[in-house]
Amino acid sequence: MPTSSRRRSRRPATILAIVAALSDIANAALPRIDFSQMGTVGIAGAFAGLDLVDSSRNITFDPSTSTLLSRASDGSLTPIAQTNPSGVISTSCTLDGKLYVAGLFSNIAGVPAQNIAAYDPSARSFSALGGANGGLDGQVSTLYCDASRHTLWVGGKFKAPTSSGRPADYGGAVARYTPANNTWSPPPFFGLTGASSQVYAITPSLSGSSLLFSGSFLTQFGGNATLPQNISNPNVPQSSGATPYSTSLVPVPLAQSEVIGAPSTSTSGFSDPKNILCPSGADGPGSSWQAQDGVRSVLTVRTFKFTTASGIRLGNTFLDGRGVKDFSVTTIPDNDVVSLTYIDPTTKNNVTCEDPCTLAHDPTVPYQDFLFSSPKVVTGFQLTVETWYGAGAGLHLLQLLSDGAFASAISNDNQASCYAPEASQVQAAGQWKTVNAYTDIAGTTQDVLVANVQVGTSAANSPTMTWHPYVSASGNYNVYLMVPGCQNLQDCANRTSVKVTVYPGGNLQPVVTTVSEQVDADTNQLIYSGPIFPATPDYTATVVLALADTPTGTGVNGQFDIVADRVQFSLVDTNVANSTAAGVNATGTGLPGYGFLEWSLTNTTAFNATGVLPNSTLTTLDGLASVLYTALGTGVATSTASVRAVVPYATDSVIFAGQFTLSTLGISNFAAYAGGGIVKTGGSGLSGVVNAMAATSDKKTIFVGGSFTDTADSNNNRYRGIVKYDYIAGNVAASNKYGAAGWAIIGNGPNGQPAITSTGTQLGSSPIVSSKTKRHPPAVAGWISRARTRVASQKRQASAATTKLPATPSSPAPAVLAGTYWTNTSTSNQVVVLGGNFSVPSTNSGGVALYDSGSKTLKALNGSSVNGVVRSLYITGNSLYVGGDFAVNGLNGRGLALYDLSAQQWVNQQNLALQPAPGSSVVIRSMSSSPSIPNNIVVAGSFLTAGSLQCEGICAWDSNAKQWHALGDGIHGEVAAVDYAGEKLDSLLVAGALTLADGTPANVAIYNLGNSTWKSLGPTPGPVTAVGVNNQNASNIWAAGRSADGSTPFLIHWNGQAWTQQQTSWTGSTTISELKFVPLQDQHSSNSLIESDRMLFICGSIDSSSQGVMSSALFDGQSFYPYLVTSNADGSPGMISALFSSLSSFSFSHRKFLAAGLVILISIAIATGIVLLLLLLGILWAVCARRDTTLANPNPEEDDDDASSFRHRPSSLLAHINAATRTTILGPSALTGAAFASRKGEPSHDTHADTEAWHRADTPSGEGFIAMDGEPGDINRPTHARYSFAGQSEGELPVMAGQELVVLDDRNHDWWYVRDPNSGREGVVPASYLY
């Protein structure tokens, strides 16, 4: 039987049952990294699964058949059955313990069956449906297993079952099968018809009460069919004191406002005026407010942001005869007592009042709406109660009414209004960044979203912003787009024009308006005027912003800026009875449709869908068929267009896909139906046919499969047939052998092979979206704005930039972009701290998570969530510094925050905040430290100042003094990565898109921490994204990045004099995120670039023209070795951002030890010669060294009874014999590189691991450390240094007072063997110095 590990299908594939393919990217054995020398090692990145590169694995199958396989929990595949040659398995589902498979075949596993069969897993056998050789007389495209009704629904291109003696009973394309009696029956609607009638998908509705049939067929409903038009939210209570107009005004969310009642009653349940903003119950405790008895009272509401309001809504309380009678309203901040207009509940007449107005006290009138003479821009209001009913004033309802509806591009500004199913929503597709700028109002700033678009990008491929404002009721609205002024954002030259599409709903056609964003001042642009019909049940409308079809302007450096702020729906009236849009009131021959039908499962009446269906069966979703029929044009009757997959996400909204081109709408193969119209979503669609879609349970993510390669107007072949579409933010996702959401542990496995361990924890895929803010609109129309006072009194201009850093690689949630380790002193457990773009399950938090290796649990940080993306982490003691592009509610600044791990709370360090250049945001990409500048943390990324200190891109934070320090004259530009060189780590390597202070280009620069000077390391091909130093050797530096034009990746080597570019075969899509040297278990062939005991570990997203796609590779100075691959469920590549280890320093030398018994025998055998000589020399040397140490560092406890005992280590005798013996037997290599080099008078090239011989191999431990008393107690327990200890003798560990240590061996009463958990260094310390 012919086999193949990969093939091209000779016919279109309609379903992808199982795909398993790995690129043949490595023929050589995988190099063996020695992870044990690095401590605990973690892998971080954006992936859902990962695996080691292995070219030996193949999946084989017969290409002439279709094969059904099962996948085991370990990922292995087992064939179950094959069809006849040329057979196709297209679909499957399970019902009552059996698997039903269908497609186009005549037998499966040798059992005759016509296009459909059942598989019994317990009997491991197949059977035909409806009798021997039964089935259907044509191709089956879809199955739906209705478990509640024990029925199998079948759709495809067929007429009737083969076993039916009455084929005329079937209209075609749909049939039902009942397993209980093994019989077929037609659907209640008989069947479906059309020139090429075929059902491609049968999908249950959200409620499960109906089925959605989609494909290539025609439908028609009776004459004078009318789709629902008059729509209003039934949750809004009605009142005779209001009008349809006022009840349609969405209340302003006040939950976060300040609400004060003075004086309020002290009666429990009635003293808090916030009870009445959106009362959850009837008039009573917890849902009403009362003033003190018999006094005038004032209710003050302050929103602290400018809001366009139309009036207030008041509902009286009736408890004990109390209530508000006469009142007045004063707006804030203008302090005007306003005139109000209202409906008299008794006379039904309009009444105008000012001071006072009277509120009815009639239980049949739940509330009254009092409207301003015209909308006002306010930040709050005061309600002054002059007189009252009963013993004192009180209210059950108090609301501020907007002038219609609204939605902001800043997600967190969209708070839920009272009565709304949920808050207004916003969806950002493409790359958008939050930009802070001044407004037209003095002393205020604003946050808006800005997308950079390459000049020449089509509208279909541009970033988009989609608003879904909550609209309470249908009506005629004026819809405005708020355009922030370019003078305030300082980007006038970058601005262009945008295309704004309003989807009115109710089958009205979308309205497209081209708007220029080249406006100097904040502007409200009218983009639509007419009827709006909100989509139920969420009651939302849709507005989409994208680049204009013909953008104006020239842009800057080949880029346009498009800006998104907010939209406002200003209600004009509620009379929509005379709407005349096409398709609203279809008459005459009926309402035709194409490709879609919704059928209620409770409707068992027999109808004939091949003819005209009665209007009683018409649903709101059937409007999709109507508008699709219109959009396909005059040739629809003979069209080959088809809807092949449908995913519902609201009662009257679906995502639909298949094979279609809607020229008038600029949409191909993928779209949405919402608000009564077809809506672009995810751009203009996809470049090829979509065959299947699947949604996650929360309906926020859709996986899309088919024969496409990219979006409709792009030819970059990015998707290759499967993508993930996220309703919140579109991107692509993956999966592999080791399931792991963004991180995993890797170490040495059996036979020295690497072993990947998934922790079993799952990070959430809902990204935490960056929040904020407050702003003042112009005084005309405009809704919620986000004003706040600017701290700085003047605008600071951005520094002159060199080239910018390459675009950050896509990091779809869940993505882990940084990791570090911390020892929890309360439990002694090692904790992995993770940072990135993710949420923590079962919490409202994300961005940072703590994984306790002892309890195997994952938890979020306490307090406010990180809103944004974390890119770097740094721990000193119990202080966790978090860096990235984010904000934390309640903390100053963005991009950098401090968290106390012991107190489990955020620390609002006042002067820690960094400030960005105008038009940009703070992004911290690296945090590190060097012993050459104690107590200082080097913070690097994209920022302009630290407080008032100018230190662009990089600055040092003194964690003791709590203040910033500039590094010399500083640099300009953006920093991507840092590393250190020199024996004392006194040379700081900084990489990015940089220039020195004097303007010298320096994409890699070196800063001398000793003399505070900067130096450029010569020109590079372009900006650098990663830098790595080979064992602190300043003459062996590696850097990676992209060429100045962004087209080509590079890897370069610095030899102390010049850069040399390496030959990589990397393609233009490659992005390198980290370069790190790792130790090897074996040795590679020596060369002049990289020593034989180590390799360069390269992380990122790598695409090699000769080796394929990978997420990490090893480089030995001559050859590249693909190492790890990451992917999502669709097979698209993931990326690795970092390899992080618990030891910050480690050795590259090979550690080889003899067994303790053998060492002792050898010691005895040669004791008469060289051992005795070494022993004597060792004793003399130790005595001299101890004398010098004692004089230089007097013992702080010299009055102890046995104060001198710590000067003589009983264990050191045999320990030094062992060390000397190893040197004799194994040669000088048994010593560390540093120790051996110093004995020869030569500098060491292994200083990174052991600059002062603090290596475990040369310190008594393990088998060689035998001269101890008893067994060690409580190994690996934490301890702290009571005093500082210089530790100048061999094997001693210098410590500082208060330093955290880990006890490894305490069997000697005077000297304890300990480890520094931060550096990984080990040695002995006097026991009396520890506590």
Task: Give a concise summary.
The chain contains seven helices and 83 strands. It has 1331 residues and is mainly beta. β11 (139-146) and β12 (151-157) form a beta hairpin.
CA(first)-CA(last) distance: 73 Å
Instruction: Determine the number of helices (DSSP H or I, runs of at least 4 residues).
Output: 7
How many DSSP-defined strands?
83
> What is the structural class?
mainly beta
Biggest sheet statistics: 10 strands, antiparallel
Cα shape = globular
**Which percent range describes the beta-strand content?**
35-45%
Low-confidence residue ranges: 1-28, 578-589, 725-739, 767-802, 1189-1271
Radius of gyration: 36 Å
Q: How much helix, percentage-wise, in residues?
A: under 10%
Summed over residues and divided by their number, the pLDDT gives a mean of 80
Task: Please explain how this structure is put together.
The protein is mainly beta and 1331 residues long. It has seven helices and 83 strands. Strands 17, 18, 19, 21, 22, 23, 24, 25, 26 and 28 form a ten-stranded antiparallel β-sheet that branches. The chain has a six-stranded antiparallel β-sheet with strand order 49-2-78-77-76-75, with no helix packed on it. Strands 30-33-38-35-36 form a five-stranded antiparallel β-sheet, with no helix packed on it. Helix 4 packs across helix 6 and helix 5 (1167-1192) packs across helix 6 (1212-1226). The longest helix has 26 residues, at 1167-1192. The termini are far apart.
What characteristics describe this protein?
mainly beta, ten-stranded antiparallel β-sheet, six-stranded antiparallel β-sheet, 7 helices, 6% helix
